[in-house]
Amino acid sequence: MAMATTAAAPSLGCSRDVSFGTAMRGQAVPLELSKCRVGSQLRIACHSSTVRACASAGTTTLKQTRATPGEKQNVDRQTCRLALPSKGRMAEGTLSLLKDCSLPVRKLNPRQYIADIPGLKDLEVWFQRESDVVRKLRSGDVDMGIVGYDVVAEFGEDDPDLILIHDALQFGECHLGVAVPTYGIFESINTLSQLAAMPQWTSERPLRIVTGFTYLGSKFLREKGLHHVELSTADGALEAGPAMGTADAILDLVSSGTTLRENNLKELEGGKVISSQGVFVASKKALMNRPGVLESAHELLERFEAHLRARGQFSVVANMRGNSADEVAHNLLKMTSLHGLQGPTISPVYSNSTGEARVEYYAIVICVAKPDIFKAVRELRSAGGSGVLVSPLTYIFDEEPVRWRKLLDTLGR
Ligand SMILES: Nc1ncnc2c1ncn2[C@@H]1O[C@H](COP(=O)(O)OP(=O)(O)OP(=O)(O)O)[C@@H](O)[C@H]1O
Ligand SMILES: O=P(O)(O)OC[C@H]1O[C@H](OP(=O)(O)OP(=O)(O)O)[C@H](O)[C@@H]1O
Ligand SMILES: [Mg+2]
Predict the structure, then answer these.
(1) Domain ranges for the chain
(2) The Histidine biosynthesis HisG C-terminal domain covers which part of the protein (predicted)?
(3) Between residues 257 and 413, which one has the greater pLDDT?
């Protein structure tokens, strides 16, 4: 297996000092590695599979270390760090969210892993695989991150240092669930309890489940009382496992359900482990101790809240016929979709059709939830409205976001 360089590590200054190029499983270990001794100061960033490859090559006594909670690195770092997914759908979703919040990420070239956000000074942006975003939050190498909740739950391992500042960024929506084949011994199995009760599973022949979520998976299955279970892992295309005969069931992410259907699999009732979407997560220690982190988190949270709130709403302006603002208000408030955020804004429209200033119309401004827009237009017309203008909103800045207050409470502020 070819192993890619992890060139960001030395500049990230985290628990590794150098990186190396490629090595083939079972082949000679690269020269630099064979020179390195356990206990020396040389720390190497590599894929975890590399450590296994080196061990099987038998040329090194290299020890794999994982950043663990409390094992804080980079204590002297002066800058705040935000880690973002380096590839895939979550990278796209994150970059477009930040752009929509007028915080475009500036990356000098596509293969560089460091970037910045011109709108946020004193903040470094680092691109990392999602699992590494969570690991580096836990090790103190980065302060904040945007990733899928599934990754926080899996690699965060319930670490109390990880705080979800925003738990619903409205992209990357999916859930983690158990699925079995639609055919054979599973034909009449539709729930997790039925799966657990199948006589086939014994300690000699456990239920084999393939998943990328071993932490969440084993915890969930234990809690649900499935005892004779063996989890195996794969990096992708897990849905092939049952048909290939390498697994009986899968525990994987589901969004539209197409991949399950196309591979003759069905989800089990009671088999949903978690729902997931993009989240804004931070290290509690960093929020409390590193100067500037809380301020950056506040700025990001305010923008996310204002943008996401606005994204679901239209601004509607219309002229309403009426004898008084009170009468117009009364007519509007009778309609279910015309209440606005706090209530409609109503202002007199002065015309001089008769040579003197007269009020025949009132202009109203309301916010309407996007799914309700056509109902709102119908209701406006029936209440005497005309000239209805509908525009998208960029931000809705309301009072202090509830999530900000909640964060301060969590931090004891
Ligand atoms: N089908 C999906 N629809 C929506 N979001 C998804 C879907 N699958 C995964 N996600 C979300 O996107 C995250 C990253 O998944 P993605 O498939 O982009 O990366 P990966 O599986 O780690 O890598 P790759 O598939 O490129 O090898 C997941 O952790 C989850 O939060
Ligand atoms: O319910 P659906 O909309 O079909 O989406 C679910 C699929 O999406 C993800 O896979 P991905 O596309 O990332 O491929 P991978 O298995 O190679 O990771 C996930 O692992 C499922 O296989
Ligand atoms: Mg994937």
Answers:
(1) 8-57, 80-172+278-310, 174-276, 313-392
(2) 310-394
(3) 257
